[in-house]
Amino acid sequence: MKRIIATALMISCLISAAYATDLKQTSTVQRFDSLAALIEFARQNDIADKVSDVTIEKMEIDQSDAYKQSTYYVHEGDERNEVLREYRLSVLKPARADKALKKAKLLQLKQRDQLYVDVENAVSGYVLAKTALDVQQKAIELQQKKVDAMALKLDLGLVVPLDLIEAESELAQAKLNVLDYKNDVADKLLQIKKVVGADFNADIAVPYQLQLASEQVEDIAQNIDAYVARRIDVITAKDNLEVEQGLFDIVAQYFPKNLKQYKETALQLLKAQNAYDKALKNARIDIQAAYDQLQIDYKNYQIAEEIVNITKRQYESDQKKLELGVISDLDLAVSAQNLLQRQLDVARKIHTYNAAKRSYLLNLKLYKVNIAPVEYDAADYFEVNGERIERNGTED
After folding, report:
1. Which residues partner with 122 through β-bridges?
2. Terminal Cα distance for the chain, rounded
3. Which residue in 309, 390, 339 sits closest to 2, CA to CA?
4. Which residue has the higher pLDDT, 7 or 50?
5. Residue from 45, 55, 49, 47 nearest 103 by CA
6. Domains of the chain: total
7. How far from chain centre, in Å, is Cα 388?
8. Which DSSP symbol is given to 45?
9. Reduced to 3 states, what is the DSSP secondary structure of residue 219?
10. pLDDT in tens, 66-114
11. What angle do CA 333, 16, 328 make, to 5 degrees?
12. What is the pLDDT of residues 169-213, one digit of tens each?
């Protein structure tokens, strides 16, 4: 554990606790005190959330209309048909409106949490890209030292001109690589602005350090059934199955000999059951696969960290060798660059693991919403064979 902490500290130094953007002197800068403040800014600018609000408002109107219509009673004489018509109007339509509204609200809650995940992933990706650029820029310094050393050796007749040309080619390639890394940093910064809805002409400043998420992930095998049941697609499929089951029960009870109607209802029930079974199966597969991948990502992080520890010991050994005159300053610079590269590998593994973990935990989260029925008084009249009958018993 001590070695893990030591490596994490090295990564913090490598990344720097400074703000997670390049700040230009001539740019407008939007500063945020914390990642949470940036996330709240993103939430306020989230167009998708505003669209969801409008969608939910419309569904609430639809729900209200469904309940209002359920108070109407129109009798047409056929008792069995009346039972089915009454069920569709008084039970089925309001139930479907309730389920649709419930789904929309559940999806909005998850959508908001997904935004939080997207913001942190974007910021983390930027920090990683900036770190990689810093390492590559140090690689240019090392390559320049190699070129200088090779030129000196050429003057002393220790190498041939081709050796110097190869060193200069490696330096030129390192400079080209820096351009690619700079483009990646710019792309990652643009991604942050897109996710949070910021002004593209302004820079964003937010403190952030790339550190391994410390929360423990429990063995999924212990509670996978409970987590599967939490999935919104499973909840939605189950709700639809309950609605179709209720309709089938009515038809089976009152219309067992009406083969067309019976078969149509039975088919819809079968489709709902298959959709529910498929949702359960896919949810189980997705959760298990995500959990397994998370274990792999963490193992990769541990391996990368062990390599850093080995590389660090080699660097410390090279420092002592330099003091004894066994190696040159250039040899130590190569060793230091190798250590930086290994630290960058750890940072990449941390970013990958953290992003996977955020997504994994989001898919396990339990969302709850309460959908209350809409209260309406019964209509002031009902109809029998087309004749309006007032609720007080007088005919119109």
Report:
1. none
2. 85
3. 309
4. 50
5. 55
6. 1
7. 57
8. T
9. coil
10. 988 877 655 555 667 777 877 888 889 999 999 999 999 999 999 999 9
11. 10
12. 999 999 999 999 999 999 999 999 999 998 888 888 899 999 998
Residue 267 in any domain: the answer is yes
- CA–CA dist 67, 373 (Å, integer): 8
pTM of the model: 0.82
How would DSSP label each residue in 222-290? GTHHHHHHH-HHHHHHHHHHHHHHHHHHHHHHH-TT-HHHHHHHHHHHHHHHHHHHHHHHHHHHHHHHH
Strands of the sheet containing 381-384, edge to edge, are 74-75, 381-384, 387-390
Residue-wise pLDDT for 103-112, tens only, equals 999 999 999 9
Q: Which of 134, 37, 116 is nearest to 347 (CA)?
A: 134
**pLDDT mean across residues, the chain:** 86
392 lies in some domain: no
Establish if 252 belongs to a structural domain: yes
**127 lies in some domain:** no
Helices (H), the chain: 2-15, 35-44, 47-69, 79-87, 93-155, 161-196, 224-230, 232-254, 259-323, 329-364
CATH number at residue 310: 1.20.1600.10
Confidence of residue 378 (pLDDT cuts 50, 70, 90): low
CB-CB contact of 18 with 203 (8 Å): no
Determine the structural domain holding residue 224 and report its residue range: 220-373
pLDDT of residue 213: 86
Cα 102 to Cα 60, 98, 236, 277, distances in angstroms: 10, 6, 9, 20
CB neighbours (10 Å) of residue 304?
19
Rounded to whole angstroms, the Cα distance separating 320 from 326 reads 9
Is residue 195 within 8 Å of 48, Cβ to Cβ? no
pLDDT at 377: 60
Mean pLDDT, rounded, for 284-299:
94
Distance CA 341, CA 338 (A): 5
Tokens of 343: 């630290």
DSSP-assigned letter for residue 373: P
At 76 the pLDDT is 59
Residues belonging to the chain: 396
